[in-house]
Amino acid sequence: MKRILKTFCASLLALLPMAAMAQIDGEFVKPRTGKFLLQNATVVTITKGTLSNTSVLVENGKIAQIGTNISASDAEVIDCSGLFVYPGMIDAGTRLGLVEVSSVPETVDYQEIGNVTPNMQALTTVNPNAEAIGVTRVSGVTTVLTVPSGGLFPGTAALINLNGYTPDQMYGGFKAVAMTFPRSGRRGRFDRRSDEDIKKDAEKSLKEATEIFENA
Prior knowledge:
With 216 residues, the protein is of the alpha/beta class. 24% of the residues lie in helices and 30% in strands. The chain has 2 domains: 2-87, Urease, subunit C, domain 1; 90-180, no CATH class. The strands form 3 sheets. Strands 3, 4, 5, 6 and 7 form a 5-stranded mixed sheet that branches. It has a 4-stranded mixed sheet with strand order 8-9-10-11.
């Protein structure tokens, strides 16, 4: 558990200066600016694997340099010995921004009435001010695919970055129609259907999905 916490702390240090905004007591405040030198970290990269005892120079919210001998006398030094620094993590399946409190219907926007509603756009519905967005961002997750749910084709999912004041600012450049693959098992202990009925229902849903694809 300690190792996990250390990992997230290091990720947080790397992400804080890069955040486009922060929220304190309901008010948006600008992030700290300047230079930050994260020294002696284990840096996990996308293209060059894992780099030991490596430093990362962050300048004005962007990674300026990665290496073992970085000189930046005017930078704030953060010792990351024994810690990991990751790129922003991606959650590929969530309702983030589409629901605030599940028990309060006014804050639930991930589902439309009907079984086939591809017109339901997650990007249009997403709430940039949702409390969970800030919490998720500082935990190291910077991008998510937020997905409607409920029907066979519940809506159009959207890739969003967890910074920005509007949905358009958050848009990550990718959309896709979501599909809930038909379930073939029993739906909890209160499901009293026979095995034969379960099989028939699954086949019916799969046939419906196939017809929708063929007629699209």
